[in-house]
Amino acid sequence: MKLTFNEVKELFKVYQIWSGDKELLWYQKAWKVLDKGGLTEYRNYIEKRLVIIRAFTLIMIYGEFCELAFNECFNYEFPDWQYHTGLNAFMIGEIVGTMKKLLPEYDDKFWAFYYYRYGYEDGYSWALDDIFKNLVLSQRDEVFECLTKNIGSGRECGIYASMYLASIFICEDLKDKDNKGNFQNDDIEELSEYEKYEKEIEKYYWEILKEGEGTEALNWVIDGTYKIHS
User: Nearest CA to 167 among 52, 62, 53, 74?
Assistant: First the structure.
């Protein structure tokens, strides 16, 4: 089974940075890429929850990008994540239990202490928030590798251009004019917003990379992304 974009779309909306829905187009594109790489598939309820965690990994990567590119502060906080995901301490413990190589610090002794101290349903302690953030971080390498391999031409640069264009509004119309001043490609209005977004990426790709050359944001993507705050 697969978790579809429509099933996680509202989650992305909750943590939007910009007004309007354009950044959702990047999440839609990224989700298509994860789907192509098999990272939206699940065989049981624990794997399904891990797919939801990967949605937060995308939110994290996009948030970091917006801080580096546009000075929009990102602090790795996901307010009310339990409410929006339906995950509780016990469910998080089950996920972590399948990932001992990635998160060795959360061993059986840790969970025995956690449940004794906080209980199964306590979702508002700093401890559970910290565990959740580490879960989100633990998926970064796999998610970014999937994006790089499956996003199409440009690899890391394609990721950068697609995030950049999801963060701004193009004033120039996508339709070009002929030498008489008439618009060409009149069928552009029949395209979906996502299709228009893909055309924007194609049209402005090299311009965006030229403008972004040497910037911290582009270098961060090329370097594979990394946590920008300790």
Answer: 62
Paired tokens of 163: 């995030």
Residues 68, 228 contacting (CB under 8 angstroms) = yes
**pTM for the full model?**
0.88
Entry field: residues in the chain: 230
Q: Which two tokens stand for residue 216?
A: 């911290």
Cα 72 from chain centre: 16
Averaged pLDDT for residues 198-215: 94
Domain boundaries, the chain: 5-142, 152-222
Of 137, 209, 142, 165, give the one whose Cα is nearest residue 26: 165
Whether 13 and 24 have beta carbons less than 8 Å apart is answered as yes
Per-residue exposure over 184-198, b if at least 16 CB sit within 10 Å of its own CB, e if not = eeeeeeeeeeeeebb
**What is the tens place of the pLDDT at every residue in 60-114?**
999 999 999 999 999 999 999 999 998 988 888 888 888 877 888 777 767 666 6
Closest CA relative to residue 17, chosen from 68, 58, 59, 80: 59
Q: What is the mean pLDDT of residues 124-141?
A: 86
